[in-house]
Amino acid sequence: MTKVRDDRVNYAFIAAIVAVATIGGFMFGYDSGVINGTQKGLESAFALGKLGVGVNVGAILVGSSIGAFGAGRLADRIGRRSVMMLAAVLFLVSAVLAGAASSSAVFIIARIIGGLGVGAASVISPVYISEVTPAAIRGRLSSVQQVMIISGLTGAFVANFALARYAGGSTADFWWGYSAWRWMFWLQAIPALIYLAALLIIPESPRYLVAKGRKAEAEAVLTRLLGPTEAARKVEEIDRSLAGDHHRPKLSDLVDRTTGKIRPILWAGIGLAVFQQLVGINVVFYYGATLWEAVGFTEDNALQINILSGVLSIGACLLTIAVVDKVGRKPLLLVGSAGMAVTLAIVAYAFSTAVTGADGAVTLPGNNGLIALVSANLYVIFFNLSWGPIMWVMLGEMFPNQIRGSGLAVAGFAQWIANAAISVSFPSLAVSPGLAMTYFGYAFFALVSFFFVQKMVVETKGRELEDMPG
């Protein structure tokens, strides 16, 4: 396979369009994280119990699973950029409606709409990035997606903290008599509008254009990316990688015609997507404030811990960007699995020592509060050094061209179903069997993920997309 001539690569243009595409990651993170810190407002406004909180928090995940599955297939029909633009519109509608919700039912609908956008952005942004970047730097640029997801989460945490602090609490009245928690959702409209406007200036994926028979347009895009000589060669290479009869990509392509069985690469993708959630990361991001308050921290301190976790996550992702194309994907996943298993087990132990005082307040005795806090943040670091960015990198690049959209549809759907199962179940599990046993469960899945990676994951570092095994 001929490598791209480095002197012809337009790195400035590639960086610009990757920056735009990853705003979708920021929106993904913001829309997911904004719920963290609004739960007291939801409880008081809609008279919710524990199960009700879980349903309202988890509503976004219903939309996300549908959005992830539908986006992969829709992107094969109307294009990667068009799907990202649709996601931007969904983010905007959700932000306005969630903040204005007059009932739990309206809020749930708003969050499902936002979830459709989150699901779409979660799978299409990594695909788009992988399809417009050279193999030598694809891991680094694809990892930017996770940095933006965490930046969005952290942005939501900072906004929530600032609004709650300024208003005097998340349920206190703020501008124009509306509660602070409502403004936490309305602020999301600003980055949603920026995302929609920025998408108008980036090109469509050249690999999508070739698949649709629009080779001249694909060559024009690739010329801007890689130079004219490389562009012509790449168009032909992409074309050869598609189905021999040039049929439109479809779900049935996921079945190997020679064996009649589902392709092993799809099982690997589903496993990566599901294990990323079974280790419990979104419990930290969705319920962080509630979690830390449950073991004795104040609301103000809990919101500050969220911000700390976000900053550490970004730092870990930046380290991944620096090493992913040198070390590879698989070694980072193995390190992450081992690190998460140990740190989650320590957190679980610390939570198991919690005591309830005569006044009903819960505390962790001795230094166990500090141990829990340090271990939880080390867990966040291990996750964002490995499974956080690498799962999205691999899903965006591991599938051959013909099945990329379909593979992403199925793996993305599985990822969000697992996300929903973990997130919706947490409030009830935190009560029975309790936080300690729940976190031991997450530690167990982290341990299992180590052996899954060893057996099922094939290294993709440095491979052209046209060379990916099916």
Write up this protein.
The protein has 470 residues and is an all-alpha fold. 76% of the residues lie in helices and 1% in strands. The protein has helices at 11-21, 23-33, 39-46, 50-78, 80-100, 104-132, 135-167, 180-186, 189-199, 206-211, 215-226, 228-241, 264-278, 281-294, 299-327, 329-352, 368-385, 387-397, 404-456, and strands spanning 355-356, 362-363. Strands 1-2 form a two-stranded antiparallel ribbon. A hairpin with a 5-residue loop joins strand 1 (355-356) and strand 2 (362-363). Helix 13 (264-278) packs antiparallel against helix 18 and helix 14 (281-294) packs antiparallel against helix 15. The longest helix has 53 residues, at 404-456.
Give the secondary structure arrangement, pairings included.
Blueprint: H1 11-21, H2 23-33, H3 39-46, H4 50-78, H5 80-100, H6 104-132, H7 135-167, H8 180-186, H9 189-199, H10 206-211, H11 215-226, H12 228-241, H13 264-278, H14 281-294, H15 299-327, H16 329-352, E1 355-356, E2 362-363, H17 368-385, H18 387-397, H19 404-456
Antiparallel strand pairs: 1-2
Helix pairs in contact: 1-6, 1-7, 2-6, 2-7, 4-5, 4-6, 4-19, 5-6, 5-8, 5-9, 6-7, 6-18, 6-19, 7-8, 7-15, 7-18, 11-12, 13-18, 13-19, 14-15, 14-19, 15-16, 15-17, 16-17, 16-18, 16-19, 17-18
Key descriptive features of the protein:
mainly alpha, globular, 76% helix, 470 residues, two-stranded antiparallel ribbon, single chain, 2 strands, Growth Hormone, Chain: A
